């Protein structure tokens, strides 16, 4: 046999074996591995219109502090939440309104859209939080308010502007994720992870994500995991039901709550303070369930 032809034949055989092996691996690999969640957008809000879609979004209106002693009055006015240049803008302002010294907005999809399991991600530019501004991207159980907090469950994907960050001079870098729920014996339980970003986050857009499966909730900043909890324990039952997303910019809080700044004169942040949300996208998992009502 000609040695050259023999080597060519060996190469052809090797290539054929590789192709057969690759095809077998692809056939045996589950579809969710072959098609990563990052390419499987099953719900999104791109904020490209002229006004917020009221078939999807609603407002929490009031100035009662929302359980944290917040100083703002959350309105449904276009001054506090509007679309501009392909972004949702939530704007906190220093102005007397409804007996409060500040205004802002808190929007949610309760009763319109909720989901169970999946990757929920948003591209956000937070405002300068120093000191007293508290932006958040988070979720509540879809059974709220019929089921009271914390029995409904809460998952915080992004919070920034906390008192520990203020004390350390890291108020524009230190973020946290958190779970709040009724734990063992129906006693409120809070799990919190803190992370110091390498840059001031208000200078540009960043990606904030929760990856939620039947076994874990994992939290990411720009693709880097900074928090994770196993949710398989019986006292974590809140995290096996649909949740809905919330976006808001709070101002201040009780001294024992998030910012530790409880009076208007303690708020030294530059106002108006604007959070820009470029988009929110839900990437599907095999277990993902959607709840949509319009």
TrEMBL record:
Keywords: Glycosidase, Hydrolase. InterPro entries: Beta-glucanase-like, ConA-like_dom_sf, Glycosyl_Hydrlase_16. SUPFAM superfamilies: Concanavalin A-like lectins/glucanases (SSF49899). One of its GO terms (molecular function) is licheninase activity. CDD domains: GH16_laminarinase_like. It is an enzyme of class 3 (hydrolase). Its EC number is 3.2.1.73. Residues 30-288 form the GH16 domain. Belongs to the glycosyl hydrolase 16 family. This is Beta-glucanase. It comes from Stieleria magnilauensis. The gene is bglA.
